[in-house]
């Protein structure tokens, strides 16, 4: 019965098969008679350390001391004391002999002497790391002596181990015992297993076994001596051979030397209390110790202290030992960010340290924290993540982006802060390639449709640029449905010149996705009108685009005549789409030339958003809601007042602006009805609406040139004629001077563009367009329809 209970309490009575850990390779050194081996858990494979102690006799003194060590290690808990996980005692029989082995399983550690050789630190970095480790061991010894009234009895280099995060931990509790200095009647040894301690590590009173003097001494007297031995072994680089070697102080730092001598005082009562050693500010205050100490008590710091600390941390980290930064500071930083104790600037430090890791280590140690931060409600954290998305975006898998990151990022598209909307938009250049087609078509494009009519012109411009860059990631059906409408109907008719320029560049960059029919009937007609745009940048890009698309058509024509089965897309000289179009401006607060590629400025602020509007040199008058929602040509922008919403007149933003309830089925603003089959009724209504619309007084007399600004009436007619291409896909236009010359037998009055459409007589009386021209002074003949413009034909 007793053996059964012993097996249950010990954890095993039948052998190692019941030990839930696998024993691996041993380390070359360990304290005392123990063996220190690597190990892993059988459940999850997590690393552990396994200490084993064997004896042939169950009453062996080493086994008794080992059991004492197991009991003490299991009951004493401190951040700088080795963490206990599991223990068991196994008895094996080999013929007539039996063998008893004690196993202790702890957190994964390695001997300090081996870790020092592995790190290979030199000079200042070595001293800083030793200061950090001594600070940790001193806290553990002080905890035992002053708080628990326990005596470790054998503090030395062998009794210290190091964790994977390079923390020093105290272990080897076989000799540990209570301090019974208050028991005056006791005369036996206070430390029953003091015989395990080497003579070179014993103070003089222990060598003499003067337990009366020991009991009269302070509780820290023995361990203070041991701490002095540890300091000597650290800085001498070798194990202590005999007590006399402690007099050699050549390698001891000068700032630590006075305390070292007090620790090794020959009088126990005069030895330095271990807690007092921690107050040595001159030695323990260095960059490494201060940094880790600050992060250990981060929750006690206010926001100003945190902000100052984390802004300096990237520069401080470069001066610290690289391996210590990656194994110690980086995990602390990731944990503080994950649990909310760190502020937004800490993310910059995290990413900088993460850049020193390999790709695989980055995915394991940094990326999980970043993914969790996307769910944060802290706007500063969100801004910092979006500003640095290019540093970690490539490391995230498509599934993580689609399921865990994008749903949180997408909330920024509708944020009240224009700066955050812009950052969210720009982040899609990195994240969009990892999104599924369902997310791209069902979610992202709807957000981009709304951003293309955003109140901020810079956002509208960059939305067009983003569409051009991610076009290759859309499926063919989505490209056919979205791109031309987004670039021509919205971008080319935007009141902001850089937005129009962006539309032209986006069309050129995605030219390989259009066939000849789309180029000839839907793209070129909309680009040609921009060759007379008031903005020189827009005109220059328009001419280049016209040449490019005409060359595509010419090449395909030559291939057809030569009998070659050429593709209907663009020529090989056309650049690829993704990543070739730069952002229109670096941020909402910077005034740059259109399409200048610049890095994102983190200092943008909401009050300066109006500067983007100042870049717009042209504005357009919003047409009457009852008449039409089409955008006018850009050739006469300066004659019109600025509209309340510059994008509410393009016919594609009706859903967002609640202008036209008839388009409620167009959920994303681009999913339009087929425009290859125009109907006459909408055209006639557009003409009639144009006749009703008042036109401002011209600022100078009409010229005789064939340019668009011949007269206000002619300009108004051309505006409406150009507008028809984007909305109802009318037949391709002819020359500028004679837009529609279809009937050769009719008199010269038929050159009017309205007459070519053969509209029926208007139902309402036309309003005068300008004084002195007389267009509306005489009623039209009942059967002449639109030919009443005859009276101004002489000015044409």
* Biggest beta sheet summary: 5 strands, antiparallel
What structural class should be given to the helix and strand makeup? alpha+beta
How many helices? 31
Mean pLDDT, to the nearest integer, reads 76
End-to-end Cα distance? 119 Å
Helicity range: 40-55%
| Weakly predicted, low-confidence segments | 1-14, 565-580, 589-669, 671-685, 687-796
Net shape: elongated
Order of strands in the sheet with most strands: 1-2-3-5-4
Number of E-state strands:
10
| Radius of gyration, taken over Cα atoms and rounded to an integer in Å | 41 Å
Strand content: 5-15%
Topology summary:
Blueprint: H1 2-10, E1 21-26, E2 35-41, E3 47-55, H2 61-75, E4 84-94, E5 97-106, E6 110-111, H3 112-119, H4 123-147, E7 150-151, E8 160-162, E9 168-170, E10 177-178, H5 204-207, H6 211-216, H7 221-236, H8 257-263, H9 274-277, H10 281-284, H11 287-296, H12 303-319, H13 322-338, H14 345-354, H15 359-365, H16 367-373, H17 379-387, H18 389-392, H19 398-409, H20 418-431, H21 437-451, H22 457-470, H23 476-490, H24 497-509, H25 516-528, H26 536-561, H27 610-614, H28 654-657, H29 680-692, H30 712-727, H31 753-757
Antiparallel strand pairs: 1-2, 2-3, 3-5, 4-5, 6-8, 7-10, 8-9
Helix pairs in contact: 4-7, 11-13, 12-14, 13-14, 13-16, 17-20, 20-22, 22-24, 23-24, 24-26, 25-26, 29-30
Explained architecture:
The chain has 796 residues and is α+β, with helices and mostly antiparallel strands. It contains 31 helices and ten strands. Strand 2 and strand 3 (47-55) form a beta hairpin. Helix 4 (123-147) runs antiparallel to helix 7 (221-236) and helix 11 (287-296) packs parallel to helix 13. The chain starts with a helix and ends in a 39-residue tail after the last helix. InterPro entries: ARM-like, ARM-type_fold, CIK-Related_Protein, HEAT_type_2, Kinase-like_dom_sf, Prot_kinase_dom.
């Amino acid at each position: 019965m007793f053996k059964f209970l012993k097996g249950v309490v010990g954890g095993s009575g039948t052998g190692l098969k019941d030990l839930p850990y696998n024993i691996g390779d041993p380390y070359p050194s360990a304290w005392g008679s123990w063996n220190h081996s690597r190990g892993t858990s059988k459940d999850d494979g997590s690393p552990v350390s396994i200490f084993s102690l064997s004896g042939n006799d169950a009453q062996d003194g080493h086994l008794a001391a080992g059991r004492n060590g197991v009991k003490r290690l299991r009951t004493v808990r401190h951040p700088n004391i080795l963490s206990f996980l599991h223990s068991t005692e196994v008895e094996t029989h080999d013929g007539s002999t039996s063998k008893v082995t004690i196993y202790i399983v702890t957190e994964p550690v390695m001997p300090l002497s081996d870790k020092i050789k592995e790190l290979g630190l030199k000079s200042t970095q070595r001293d800083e790391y030793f200061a950090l480790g001594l600070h940790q061991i001193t806290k553990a010894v002080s905890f035992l002596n002053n708080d628990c009234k326990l005596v470790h009895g054998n503090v030395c280099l062998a009794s210290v181990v190091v964790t994977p995060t390079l923390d020093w931990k105290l272990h080897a509790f076989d000799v540990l015992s209570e301090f019974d200095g208050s028991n005056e009647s006791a005369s036996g040894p206070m430390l029953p297993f003091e015989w395990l301690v080497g003579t070179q590590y014993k103070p003089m009173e222990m060598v003499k076994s003067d337990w009366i003097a020991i009991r009269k001494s302070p509780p820290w007297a023995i361990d203070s001596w041991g701490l002095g031995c540890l300091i000597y072994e650290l800085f001498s680089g070798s194990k202590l051979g005999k007590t006399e070697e402690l007099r050699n102080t050549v390698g001891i730092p000068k700032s630590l030397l006075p305390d070292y001598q007090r620790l090794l005082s020959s009088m126990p009562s005069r030895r330095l209390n271990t807690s007092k050693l921690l107050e040595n500010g001159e030695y323990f205050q260095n960059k490494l110790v201060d940094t880790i100490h600050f992060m250990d008590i981060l929750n006690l710091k206010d926001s100003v202290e945190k902000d100052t600390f984390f802004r300096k941390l990237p520069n401080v980290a470069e001066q610290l030992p690289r391996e210590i930064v990656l194994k110690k500071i980086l995990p602390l930083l990731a944990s503080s960010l994950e649990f909310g104790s760190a502020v937004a600037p800490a993310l910059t430090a995290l990413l900088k340290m993460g850049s020193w890791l390999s790709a695989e280590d980055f995915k394991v140690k940094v990326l999980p924290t970043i993914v969790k931060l996307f769910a944060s409600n802290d706007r500063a954290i969100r801004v910092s993540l979006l500003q640095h998305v290019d540093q970690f975006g490539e490391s995230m898998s498509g599934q993580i982006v689609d399921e865990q990151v994008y749903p949180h990022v997408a909330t920024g598209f509708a944020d009240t802060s224009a700066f955050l909307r812009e950052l969210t938009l720009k982040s899609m250049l990195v994240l969009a390639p990892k999104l599924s087609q369902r997310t791209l078509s069902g979610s992202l494009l709807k957000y981009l449709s709304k951003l293309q009519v955003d109140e901020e012109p810079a956002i509208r411009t960059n939305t067009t640029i983003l569409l051009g860059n991610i076009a290759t990631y859309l499926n063919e059906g989505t490209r056919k449905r979205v791109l031309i409408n987004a670039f021509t109907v919205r971008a080319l008719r935007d009141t902001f010149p850089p937005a129009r320029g962006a539309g032209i560049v986006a069309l050129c960059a995605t030219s390989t996705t259009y066939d000849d029919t789309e180029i000839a009937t839907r793209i070129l007609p909309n680009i040609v009108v921009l060759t007379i745009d008031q903005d020189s940048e827009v005109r220059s890009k328009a001419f280049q685009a016209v040449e490019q698309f005409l060359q595509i058509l010419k090449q395909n024509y030559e291939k057809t005549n030569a009998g070659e089965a050429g593709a209907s897309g663009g020529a090989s000289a056309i650049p690829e789409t993704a990543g070739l179009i730069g952002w229109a401006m670096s941020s909402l607060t910077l005034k740059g030339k259109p399409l200048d590629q610049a890095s994102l400025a983190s200092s943008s602020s909401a009050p300066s958003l109006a500067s983007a509007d100042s870049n717009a040199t042209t504005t357009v008058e919003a047409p009457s809601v009852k008449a039409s929602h089409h955008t006018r040509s850009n050739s006469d922008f300066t004659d019109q007042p600025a509209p309340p919403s510059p994008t509410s007149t393009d016919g594609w933003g009706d859903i967002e602006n609640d202008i036209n309830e008839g388009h409620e089925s167009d959920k994303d603003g681009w999913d339009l009805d087929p425009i290859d089959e125009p109907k006459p009724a909408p055209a006639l209504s557009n003409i009639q609406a144009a006749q009703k619309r008042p036109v401002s007084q011209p600022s100078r007399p009409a010229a005789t040139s064939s340019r668009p600004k011949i007269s206000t009436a002619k300009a108004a007619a051309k505006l409406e004629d150009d507008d028809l291409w984007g909305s109802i896909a009318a037949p391709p236009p002819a020359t500028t001077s004679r837009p529609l010359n279809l009937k050769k037998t009719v008199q010269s009055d038929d050159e009017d563009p309205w007459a070519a459409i053969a509209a029926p007589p208007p139902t309402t009386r036309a309003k005068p367009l300008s004084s002195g021209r007389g267009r509306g002074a005489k009623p039209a003949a009942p059967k002449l329809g639109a030919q009443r413009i005859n009276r101004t034909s002489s000015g044409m």
